[in-house]
Amino acid sequence: MESVINEHFPSCMPISLMQIIQSYVDATNTHDVKSIVACFADDAVLRDENATRHGKIEIERWATETIDNYKFHSDHSTPNTAPTKLY
User: Fold this and answer.
1) Is 79 contained in some domain?
2) pTM, whole model, 2 decimals?
3) 12-42 residues labelled b (16+ CB within 10 A) or e (exposed)
4) Across 68-72, average pLDDT
5) What is the pLDDT of residue 10?
6) Residue 37 falls within a domain, yes or no?
7) Does some domain include residue 83?
């Protein structure tokens, strides 16, 4: 998949951040939990659906539950839209 991140984020964004965002998008689209979790720091804090998750173990649980509950897919192919569109 060709990167479409450049379309949505300023050119001043560090390359390493753009790469991690693309990795996250690719991992979420393939529902690859291990790759999703790899995008987060060991001490990451994630807030979603009025809950806060701390660290990779809780983020892995969140990713698994989110995939099971929503079967989401991020679409970045449409120009002039918000960076993430969930189905």
Assistant:
1) no
2) 0.68
3) eeeeeebeebbebbbbbeebebeebbebbee
4) 84
5) 56
6) yes
7) no
44 occurs within a structural domain: yes
User: Cβ of 44: how many Cβ atoms within 10 Å?
Assistant: 14
Cα–Cα distance measured from residue 23 to residue 3, given in angstroms and rounded to the nearest whole number: 10
What's the CATH code of the domain at 65? Answer: 3.10.450.50
Give the tens place of pLDDT for each residue, 9-36. 556 656 677 899 999 999 999 999 999 9
Which residue range is the domain that position 22 belongs to? 14-70
C-alpha–C-alpha distance, residues 16 and 8, integer Å:
16
